[in-house]
Amino acid sequence: MSQPCACGCGEDARRSFVKGHNRRVALQARLAAKTVITPTCWLWTGPPSANGYGRIAVGRRHVQAHRASYEMHVGPIPDGMELDHLCHTQALATCAGGSTCPHRLCVNPAHLRPATQLLNIMTGLSPAARNARKTHCDDGHEFSGSNLIVMSDGRRRCRSCENARQRAKRARRAAKRKAAA
């Protein structure tokens, strides 16, 4: 009768060697040793990368610690997807973002979801994300209906403000011509 392995690999624990078992158990132990569980997040205490994410060696290469944790606890990340930190998305109002963002060190698999790169960027704090969430221009005009101009590169412009810019430009040109005459 087989006895399931405690690491969750599904193999018989009595076998002396299970392919990849020693690496998986070692990685699990290293992840646990470098993680502090707080009431909100599982914070990585190991070395961060230059962009602020935790990193851990897997085999002969370094991977982001939150990716290793997700793959260990949940399973593989679907092709074409990346992991979105839900704890960061929920704290946008108070988080400064960037490489000092504390949520980049969270390795709690319950706080991670596979997302497309576009969705991950748009739920963040980048200028593109902030602009995409805007519903009004800087002068307070709504971005909707006939007041919305969508440029060929996807940027949005306010028609009211664009018309005002064009009127001011024509007035400057007329004044310049009048002064030259």
Concise structural overview:
The protein has about 180 residues and is of the alpha+beta class. Helix content is about 35%, strand content about 15%.
Radius of gyration, taken over Cα atoms and rounded to an integer in Å? 26 Å
* Biggest sheet statistics: 2 strands, antiparallel
Summarize the helix and strand pattern as letters: HEEEEHEHEHHEEH
The CA-CA distance between the termini, in Å, is: 103 Å
Number of helices in the DSSP assignment: 6
Shape: elongated
Helix content: 25-40%
Description:
The chain has 181 residues and is of the alpha+beta class. It has 6 helices and 8 strands; from the N terminus they run αββββαβαβααββα. The strands form 4 sheets. A two-stranded antiparallel ribbon has the order 1-2. A two-stranded antiparallel ribbon has the order 3-4. The protein has a two-stranded antiparallel sheet with strand order 5-6. It has a domain at 134-181.
Could you give the topology of this structure?
Layout: H1 21-33, E1 35-37, E2 42-44, E3 55-58, E4 61-64, H2 65-73, E5 82-85, H3 86-90, E6 112-115, H4 117-122, H5 127-133, E7 148-150, E8 156-158, H6 159-180
Antiparallel strand pairs: 1-2, 3-4, 5-6, 7-8
